[in-house]
Amino acid sequence: MATLIDIKNLNLFYGTFQALKNVTFTIPEKAITAFIGPSGCGKSTLLRTLNRMNDMIPGTKIDGQLKISGTEVYSNQVDVETLRKKVGMVFQQPNPFPKSIYDNIAYGPRLHGITNKAKLDEIVETSLKSAALWNEVKDHLRRSAFGLSGGQQQRLCIARALAVNPDILLMDEATSALDPISTLKIEELVQELKNNYTIVMVTHNMHQAARVSNQTVFFLNGEVIEYAETDKLFTTPKDQRTEDYISGRFG
Length: 251
Ligand SMILES: Nc1ncnc2c1ncn2[C@@H]1O[C@H](COP(=O)(O)OP(=O)(O)OP(=O)(O)O)[C@@H](O)[C@H]1O
Prior knowledge:
single chain, four-stranded antiparallel β-sheet, about 250 residues, ATP-binding, six-stranded mixed β-sheet, 10 strands, Rossmann fold, alpha/beta, binds adenosine-5'-triphosphate, P-loop_NTPase
């Protein structure tokens, strides 16, 4: 699998607190990479560096290399709007806009200058189909997104991210607020999406990482302890700390 994201000696500080320490690994394209580790180990921080969401946190300092498709993400030349279009994000709590289902999906494309109704209709349909939601909502696209169930809202948020045609989808514990059936649906959906997108997911749920991902990265105290194919990491971890974590001895 070709490398899409190349991280080398990445350090991140919140003020004087160092949240990421010398992080080095690569993320392959069109695969699912899971970040696991105990609370506070830096998983979400690293995820947010990938589309520069940390830029919004005052006092954040970052050094080292973070390249996506060979381009340094933290270079002055990078247009953050364009970066965030290419690197979409789905959060823990479904966060649809207070708008109709249709307008939630059309929001991003409109922002990027698409006004043609037929084109928007097509994007809405394709995105909802890709997020496995179309059949459930196609007859009431003008209804408020708030009328959907939590699991449907999360698939709507995935559809909204897909509508601007990203390469990468970041998922920050995107199923932790959902019931088991909705979680399973999203896990199945993510398996489909990896055919066309590179997925990076933070999960607290080791079973989910083991079920869904191709690669797993184990973090502890801001450091990458182990990075391996998911099967290998869960069956024959190389580091004792990984073994202790996956066997439930801490965290
Ligand atoms: N905005 C912030 N300002 C200061 N410190 C922060 C900020 N965000 C996170 N941290 C600290 O950085 C460390 C890493 O946090 P992060 O949220 O990345 O961990 P995490 O592994 O995703 O945790 P969790 O699984 O609980 O979400 C923690 O010690 C946290 O307290």
